[in-house]
Design a protein that fits this description.
- The strands form 3 sheets. The chain has a 7-stranded mixed β-sheet, with helices on both faces.
- Helices cover 26% and strands 34% of the residues.
- The model has no long low-confidence stretch (mean pLDDT 96).
- By secondary structure, it is an alpha/beta fold.
- The radius of gyration is 15 Å and the shape is globular.
- Helix 1 links the parallel strand 1 and strand 2.
């Protein structure tokens, strides 16, 4: 059975992420233990709330060191929502820029849209050759809750539109990330998580 660690740094829907991963066949541990996080087949970095607060929690558990070690040996990582955002170089909230983990190039910025937060179901423009979205039809909807987003980055980029186009998911080598919540996206989210597990 595929072993997955959901990184516990004091933020994120830890139990819902755990349940969603268990639903698709993973053996899941929720922990801040660095050794477990480094050695697992897959590492999930969840996140809700403010970018800077999440970074403070991640710093406390040495997430940068954990990720650096995992990526050096090609072990996959999945970031979800703010857990995706913190993988980027920096985040700007309320006019203040905070450093991110720097795993992916780009900046998280306020989403320019008539209604914020962007909350609810939305379709995405799936990247060609995407592994995460394999088997999902083009009109599939995923559940979003956010007011900040990454306007662009490199890698296999899936986008969505709410006021403006933004990165909905990115696949860059062993690093995958989604702005939406697969654990709240029903069968579509389960398929995406299953696809991720299948690639570990």
């Amino acid at each position: 059975m595929t072993r997955v660690v959901v990184l516990d740094y004091g933020s994120g829907n830890l139990r819902s992420a755990q349940r969603a991963l268990e639903r698709v066949g993973a053996e899941v541990t929720v922990t801040a233990d660095a050794t477990a996080a480094i050695e697992a087949d897959g590492l999930v970095v969840p996140g809700v709330g403010a970018f800077a607060a999440c970074m403070a929690g991640l710093t406390a558990v040495d997430a940068a060191g954990i990720l650096q070690t995992r990526l050096a040996v090609g072990r996959p990582v999945l970031g979800i929502c703010v857990g995706m955002q913190v993988l980027f170089d920096a985040g700007v909230e309320h006019g203040v820029e905070s450093a991110g983990l720097g795993v992916l190039p780009g900046r998280v910025e306020p989403l320019v849209a008539p209604v914020l937060p962007h909350m609810g179901w939305n379709t995405v423009e799936m990247a060609a050759d995407s592994v995460l979205f394999t088997g999902l039809p083009a009109d599939t909807r995923f559940y979003f809750v956010h007011s900040y987003a990454v306007p662009d980055t490199t890698g296999l980029v899936t986008t969505a539109v709410h006021g403006e186009q933004f990165v909905a998911a990115v696949e860059a080598g062993v690093v995958s990330a989604t702005q939406f919540h697969p654990e709240k996206s029903g069968d579509a989210g389960a398929t995406l998580l299953e696809n991720w597990l299948g690639a570990l």
